Amino acid sequence: MRTYSHALLTLHASRRHAPRTYTYAILGATLPDVPALVGAAWLAANRLGRFSRKDFQTEVCGRSLFSRPDAALHRTLTVSGAFALHAVLNTKRRGTLTPLYAFLLGWAGHVFAHALSHGSDARPLIWPVSAYRFESPVSYRELPRTRPPRLPLRRRRTRGGPLRRPQGDHRHRRPAPPLGPGSLQAHRQHDRALLLDILSDSIYHPCGCYIEYRSV
């Protein structure tokens, strides 16, 4: 998910609380992407604002200065440690929604959203304790493969005129494959992925764990 998508979803989830509370929650939701944003600003300053995504992958994602903090902030083990430290140091106000607690909840929501939206490109959740990765059934990387086949577009003949092409029927498109036994499952997978795309926007994360999806 893009950083602003995390911020908007967090704002929607915490909008009924005080402005200070949801502001801290939004800051926590954007925290894991800060190393990537700093790397983007650094690269833009060195390249006078002109650089490609390949340059970003090489210059930012290839540098441990940016990639290691980014990976650490996206792990559930790091978030759990922050919650445990907060519980130990904040015994008097335990159970209340303080700004710091809202910040941690926003951070945890960021990590949880990634766990639900990535399959083969998922991160190890509790690294370095374990290399286990939860591969979500809804993933942007597998979305083109699970996209349902297109239905054949029908042309209609106008009075006294030639066949009229329906709107959106581009000549460079390949003919749609016939519907098969697995088409229903493909449609369901596509619907789940499309719903997630509407909620979180098409994504591109610079540090190699995410890809951009553009519907065709």
Quick tags:
two-stranded antiparallel sheet; 216 residues; mainly alpha; single chain; 2% strand; disordered C terminus
What does this structure look like?
By secondary structure, this protein is an all-alpha fold. The protein has a domain of 147 residues. The protein has nine helices and two strands; from the N terminus they run ααααααααββα. Strands 1-2 form a two-stranded antiparallel ribbon. A hairpin with a 5-residue loop joins β1 and β2. The longest helix has 18 residues.
TL;DR?
50% of the residues lie in helices and 2% in strands.
Strand and helix map with partners:
Blueprint: H1 3-14, H2 19-30, H3 34-46, H4 53-61, H5 64-73, H6 76-89, H7 99-115, H8 143-146, E1 156-157, E2 163-164, H9 183-200
Antiparallel strand pairs: 1-2
End-to-end separation = 19 Å
Output mean pLDDT. Answer: 72
Strand order, sheet with most strands: 1-2
Count the strands? 2
Shape: globular
Largest sheet: 2 strands, antiparallel
The run of helices and strands is: HHHHHHHHEEH
For the CA atoms, what is the radius of gyration?
A: 22 Å
